[in-house]
Amino acid sequence: MSTPVAIPPRERSGSATLSSARSPNSNSLSRSPVTATTIEYASTAPQASTGHDEAQDEDVPAHLYQKLPRQYLEKGKGGQDVPDYLRMILMSKVYTAPLNLQETPLTHAVNLSKRLGCEIWLKREDLHPVFSFKIRGAYNMMASLSAEDKARGVVTCSAGNHAQGVALSGKALGIPATVVMPLSTPSIKVNNVRRLGGNVVLHGQDFDAAKAECLRLEKEKGLTFIPPYDDPYVVAGQGTIAMEICRQVADPDALDGVFGSIGGGGLCAGIAAYMKRVAPRTAVYGVETVDGDAMDKSLKAGHRVVLPEVGPFADGTAVRLVGEEPFRVCRELLDGVVIVDNDEICAAIKDVFEGEPHSPVSADKQKRARSPNPLARSRSRA
């Protein structure tokens, strides 16, 4: 009897889908890197690039927890205070007024399930107002700000789904939201953010220059920086996806695995943090592209690794340096990372277009999950 197999969270620009992802123990594929200056998150990760092949991190990035209330902290394995993500996710403001985000459906991928001989489920994050899970983390962090911080406003640097999430959250919460973008940003992206209420500042020729301007505005005007992934509130917001999955299936422990794409790591960190507390038997796998595998390399090295270059094809996950907090969580809880190449993503896009209206980076991974590798287990996957 076939069993459920995969639930890929989706983002319009490189989120979750699978067609033929490489297993965690497989060899690396050949790379065709492109300079990172054309890639948004390659240059605008919350941490500045060090120019070296690794980042200088602490085991626990305590500086990211300074504003967390005491009730949101617990003792980690080393005895240090770390975020209590189960509590933070359960107490998340994602579903609160005035935005009142709704749970997204968990849809049975009938055609893919039939082809692969297993049950595949897709988490429809494309049905959010900004067509992406990014709204969860942005809104959760912004709704959790103090009244003083809300009044001063927020700032971020992005031209993608995170920018739209910050803009819409600011509009809903009455928080002035400034979004810094390079001068070369396509007008459609600029107009989308403005349409949602964001104050767009166009600055610099690339995202490095735009990020520098973002940090200048943060310091000069006392704004709160809303990072795309490297903050406990953002991680917890994305983790509500896992909470919904567990409510939407009959038996969360019967799921073989949950697959999510990795850019900066916030999505998979949030999913893993919840699943490993509520359904610890369920494996959680990240999915990265062969020319954007910062998390995979970092986990293997035991520290965050800065990629010299990333490829532009899946630009929504093109990150040179993953976040400190997502790396800490993934290092402890993630079961593995699956690597996909561009051909596999294209094949997944075709599969999704022809049979399931959902997302390609993770869909590729689900197709490969039925082959003889550590992912092909007897139970179900999500």
UniProtKB/TrEMBL annotation:
Alphabetized Gene3D superfamilies for the sequence: 3.40.50.1100
Start-end of Low complexity biased regions: 18-33
UniProt-listed SUPFAM superfamilies: Tryptophan synthase beta subunit-like PLP-dependent enzymes
Span of domain Tryptophan synthase beta chain-like PALP: 102-354
Record region (Disordered): 1-59, 356-382
GO terms of biological process kind: isoleucine biosynthetic process; L-serine catabolic process; L-threonine catabolic process
GO molecular function: L-serine ammonia-lyase activity; pyridoxal phosphate binding; threonine deaminase activity
Residues annotated as signal peptide: none
Keywords linked to the UniProt accession: Lyase, Pyridoxal phosphate
InterPro entries, alphabetized: Ser/Thr_Dehydratase (IPR050147), Ser/Thr_deHydtase_PyrdxlP-BS (IPR000634), TrpB-like_PALP (IPR001926), TrpB-like_PALP_sf (IPR036052)
One Pfam family it belongs to: PALP
Family: Belongs to the serine/threonine dehydratase family.
Name this polypeptide is given: Threonine ammonia-lyase
